[in-house]
Amino acid sequence: xxxxxxxxxxxxxxxxxxxxxxxxxxxxxxxxxxxxxxxxxxxxxxxxxxxxxxxxxxxxxxxxxxxxxxxxxxxxxxxxxxxxxxxxxxxxxxxxxxxxxxxxxxxxxxxxxxxxxxxxxxxxxxxxxxxxxxxxxxxxxxxxxxxxxxxxxxxxxxxxxxxxxxxxxxxxxxxxxxxxxxxxxxxxxxxxxxxxxxxxxxxxxxxxxxxxxxxxxxxxxxxxxxxxxxxxxxxxxxxxxxxxxxxxxxxxxxxxxxxxxxxxxxxxxxxxxxxxxxxxxxxxxxxxxxxxxxxxxxxxxxxxxxxxxxxxxxxxxxxxxxxxxxxxxxxxxxxxxxxxxxxxxxxxxxxxxxxxxxxxxxxxxxxxxxxxxxxxxxxxxxxxxxxxxxxxxxxxxxxxxxxxxxxxxxxxxxxxxxxxxxxxxxxx
Length: 428
Known about the structure:
3 domains; alpha/beta; Rossmann fold; 10 strands
């Protein structure tokens, strides 16, 4: 068997060689991606990024002919050391003696560019939806029988009587099989002819009835060619189902900077779900003093604003969960982004909704609190927000709740990785 790789090579590159290089440099590339996260924005995902790799990282092992055995060698010019002496370190540490040279040559670090796909594959490599107890989606599919038309063979239990009789009727009409009514009519005419003594009519009608009966025997009522069986084929079906609820605060307390951070977080989350999982439903909910489910475009582009009542978003998510996503068959995840501002009078409703309905039902609840960039003015600094304190009172080892803060766009990548790390996170 010959296997031919017909994938298109990137311009000026050999794809197999590039893949071998990435496998060899996997550790160095992963470190470089981690270092680039701090300075990379979500909108720069499409941009290629250069990755420096130390020269020693690309060295290849080589074989050479050995002399064999143990050899003792004496080098000329040694008037200080004898066999067994330990060579002391040069004074001043490792860097001593490394003065700049007036001439000479060297090699810089090896640098190559990661494409968008390569960067995202490495970035999402060790991320997943935590605690997927009803099996992980990407690897859990079962073969489910699905109707796929009809077959000419099968078992008695799969016989389709309606389709079989339809085929039989079409064949009988096409071949002109005599009907029962036609035969009864000729027999009635024969009886009249016999009663009247018309021998010519009797002979003619008997011959016609004979031919009609012979034709009925030749063209049976149901022929094997008419029989049809219901056909089924196996199709992969996800055993586990998951839904991600995205809750975003768009109230008046969320300035443009905060909304930008929240949108970046949800953009990254949406991209992550699309790449890593095959069957994840996404529900978008925006809220001010009231919440409503919206489509993807409205979620990311609408400029609606208003007051802040966080419990409205939680109650909307709970209602949708009850109506469309039963807990016994769905893995439920919730991601929320807010500046933490909420009415003090709403805290009890938030606690009740989280404690009684959402946290017991969901696999994981990720809360991102966005804020303004750090300021040197001490008067601008305040303590934990109202919503942060409310959620903090719920934290326990058995509660699937994780909380993180982000104040700048450069923190979004790192916060996202912490929230969806494979081993789970806790509040910080």
